[in-house]
Design brief:
5 strands; 5-stranded antiparallel beta sheet; alpha+beta; 3 helices; 111 residues; single chain
Length: 111
């Protein structure tokens, strides 16, 4: 179930436009509006979880599926190489409290 005031829930519902990269029954992926790499995609579960720890504790299969989606995006964009980032908590840079994975790829990334 999604939260009515959540930005990503509104994107998933089509209430806010996004540049969709991938969608299936459980997962939605779209281009980040402030990219940090040539390809910067956010992968979100359609079910609302606040962060990656909550997702892992409640639906580890969904977390694994998100990793598979990240690999598929990287395979299409940049020979399979990618960085996958989850920010958890305001002090770690999380600004939307609907778990999301940042997929960075499309170019060689610095360490």
């Amino acid at each position: 179930m999604c939260e009515p005031d959540c930005l990503f829930c509104k994107i998933i519902a089509g209430e806010i436009p996004s540049d969709k990269v991938y969608e299936d029954e459980t997962t939605y992926a779209f281009k980040d509006i402030n990219p940090k790499a040539a390809v910067h995609v956010l992968i979100v579960p359609k079910q609302h979880y606040a962060n990656v720890a909550e997702l892992a504790g409640n639906d580890p299969a969904q977390l694994a599926h998100m990793a598979q989606v990240a690999q598929s995006i990287a395979d299409d964009a940049f020979h399979g190489a990618y960085r996958l980032i989850f920010n958890t908590g305001r002090d770690a840079g999380q600004s939307v409290f609907h778990v999301h994975a940042h997929v960075l790829t499309g170019e060689t990334l610095d360490e």
